[in-house]
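tool=predict chain=A
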Amino acid sequence: MIVWKRACRSARPSTRPLSSRRCLSQRTLDGLERPVQSYISTSRDPYLNLSIEHFLLQKSAPESTILFLYINRPSIILGRNQNPWLEVNLALLNASGHDELETEPPGLGIVDLVRRRSGGGTVFHDEGNVNWTVICPSKDFTRDKHAEMVVRALRTCSVDRARVNVRHDIVLDQGEHALCTDPEDTHSTPYQLAEADAIRPLKVSGSAYKLTRQRALHHGTCLLSSPNLNIIPDYLHSPAKPYMTARGVESVSSPVGNILLTNERFIAAVQEQFAKLYGAVDDAKDVGDEWREHSPVCKGYDELKVTDLPTTI
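tool=predict ok
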């Protein structure tokens, strides 16, 4: 029997008095015209963070460049063209359905299921994963440019095994020190071995993109200290997949691992490399729940919440 439920209901209208609501100031909105901008979210709500990201893409000045960093509570983020039945163990997402499972669930409780507006594969977010976004003019965009920026940030934190692979993901090489390479080369490390002897690198950051006529958005994950690595496969393995054929983009499985950096150190390193790449930038602006009261962000939030994605089988 198949039971369909909405992943989440639309948020109810705020019951707080108007006088107590925090709204975006005109100064904040005027800041969207600055040539270089940086934001850090104080929210762990994936619906809000993805809505703020989309708002920045749509409303910032066409020639501006933006860095946005955020951390989500446990959630599964689908690419816009993916089929959840093929990508996710939907039964695990609804804590109320645990009595129907044949095996003990991993114990995370309810995990949000969100379909983002960009392409790419399905990823698992939690508090040990920092998400980074760069928005820039389309004419300045390449698929490696900002992944390379993140690799340079990791190398300043002594993560010298990090590199960008041919799929534009960031991986950690696992071989023994064997080569002499240019330290400025973000696509190779001294730990790469001959293909016949190679140990598969660990994927630590995947990428997805959204391109418009004037703007380009590149966002990625970065696994730093996730406590859930051992159970992520439980969520990202669909028991229905062997029995289904369907349209949509399938994820490419890769071994993953933690970098073992604190969120704070990673964020500071990425901010530093972003400033080097694009010039002086004001201190990062904190964004959070007050953006939920801004009408365009609220609209995007409600659109993500009303997805009719199934959460139990």
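The chain has one domain: 22-305. Confidence is low (pLDDT under 50) at residues 1-21, 95-102.
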